[in-house]
Amino acid sequence: MKTDDFDFTLPEKLIAQTPLDKRDASRLLVLDKKTGKIEHKHFKDIINYLNKDDVLVLNDTKVMPARLYGVKETTEAVVEILMLKEVSKNTWECLTKPAKRIKQGTVITFGNNLLKAKCVEIKDEGIRVFELIYQGILNEILDELGQMPLPPYIHEKLEDQSRYQTVYAKEIGSAAAPTAGLHFTNELLDKIKEKGIKIVFITLHVGLGTFRPVNVSDVTKHKMHSEFYKMDQKTADILNRAKKNHHQIISVGTTTTRTLETVMHNYNTFKECSGWTDIFIYPGFKFKAIDKLITNFHLPKSTLVMLVSALAGKENIMNAYKEALKEEYRFFSFGDSMLIK
After folding, report:
1. Whole-number mean pLDDT of the chain?
2. What Å distances lie between residue 64 and 97, 124, 140, 315, CA to CA?
3. What is the biggest distance separating any 2 CA atoms in the chain, rounded to whole angstroms?
4. Cβ proximity of 204 and 256 under 8 Å
5. Statement: the pTM of the whole predicted model exceeds 0.90
6. Does 124 share its domain with 174?
7. What is the mean pLDDT of the segment spanning 33-51?
8. Where are the alpha helices (DSSP H) in 46-149?
9. Hey, which bits of the chain come out as E strands?
10. Which residues touch 244 (CB under 8 Å, ≥6 apart)?
11. Number of Cβ atoms within 10 Å of the Cβ of 190
12. Helix (H) or strand (E) holding 240
């Protein structure tokens, strides 16, 4: 299976640079994975595709203001770091620019010495491990010094930083938003609950995999970076009951999907658990957890296009993307949405 099989040409004008005024006003392409039939709706219509006793699963991770600009202590050269994951207390893996100038022992200072980062390990692909040195509460320091880590294809300034968070974001720790959830409003979630649909939460902290393209020609040779996930007992019980009673499980986003499938493949049931997952879902994968998926439109040749192709079939997905391009849907993080049913 070749990476090029998942390629398509995307005009730059279709890459959404800013969010719509109303979250649920985005368009919704509905794809029937069995027949390939396509419908064109708006996101607020999603409620019509959910039934009483279905379970809607959301990722409640919260994006950290994890992009920091500092200076090397010795030369005052400017260095950018993007905090990706905490590997131990106050020790973080960071995507670093320019990485080649950061050696073991290098110290970077931020905000008049409010925060320091000492390089303690060199890794590949621009990754450095830093020990963070500070007084006080790290999240408060990041709120003061950090910037929201918008994806590199977004060039416009985001006026309202909260628009790169879901309305239900709670568990801080992500380097990127679980963007399929950006379309939900509190009002829409209330209507979904009123219809008798259960809403549950998992957590997966989005990390480096979001920023990394597939650089191998053979899909099966790609290695995913690991990300932290957790599921509590309440969520597990509701999901297991849905499975037992043949109710549908609707996953919101690829991050949620990877968490649910990780748990189900590890334990053959849903259970309270946490850990690190590097699950890679591409065509041929046998889904055990989810029935439907709400997702955005993804980058060509990305692991995310491969995931949705595994669920709906590559031919159906490529046809749906062709239709979305023709109808000028908005792509990527602030773009429009797709329901695979």
Report:
1. 95
2. 19, 23, 11, 37
3. 64
4. yes
5. yes
6. no
7. 98
8. 138-145
9. 27-31, 38-42, 55-59, 61-63, 67-72, 78-88, 91-97, 107-110, 115-122, 127-134, 171-174, 198-204, 227-231, 249-252, 273-277, 292-296, 337-340
10. none
11. 11
12. helix 233-244
Domain count, the chain: 2
Q: Is residue 218 part of a domain?
A: yes
Q: Which amino acid is at 113?
A: N
Q: Are 322 and 8 in contact (CB under 8 A)?
A: yes
Quickly state the pLDDT bin for 210 (edges 50, 70, 90). low
Q: Residue 77 pLDDT > 70, yes or no?
A: yes
Place of tokens 């996953």: 251
% of the chain at pLDDT higher than 70 = 99
Instruction: Tell me whether residue 151 is in a domain.
Output: no
Alpha carbon distance 128, 99 (integer Å): 7
Instruction: Report which of residues 39 and 225 the model is more confident about.
Output: 39
Cα separation, 239 vs 243, whole angstroms = 6
Residue 116 and residue 50 share a domain: no
Residue 244 lies in a domain: yes
pLDDT, position 125: 85
Instruction: Report the C-alpha dihedral over residues 252, 258, 261, 263, rounded to 10 degrees.
Output: -110
Domain boundary among 82, 111, 145: 145
pLDDT score at 225 = 86
**45 and 178 belong to one structural domain:** yes
| SS3 category, 296 | strand
Phi, psi of 146 (to 5 degrees): -85, 165
Q: Label residue 136 left, alpha or beta by phi (over 0 means left) and psi (-120 to 50 means alpha).
A: left
Range of the domain at 294: 3-63+160-340
pLDDT by residue (tens digit) across 122-176?
Answer: 998 899 999 999 999 999 999 999 999 888 889 998 989 899 999 999 999 999 9
On whether the CB atoms of residues 73 and 105 are closer than 8 A, the answer is: no
Q: Both 71 and 172 in a single domain?
A: no
- Same domain for 139 and 179, yes or no, is no
What is the model's pLDDT at position 112?
86
pLDDT at 211: 60
Check pLDDT > 70 for residue 249: yes
Task: Give how far Cα 224 sits from Cα of 135, 227, 279, 301, Å.
Answer: 34, 9, 7, 14
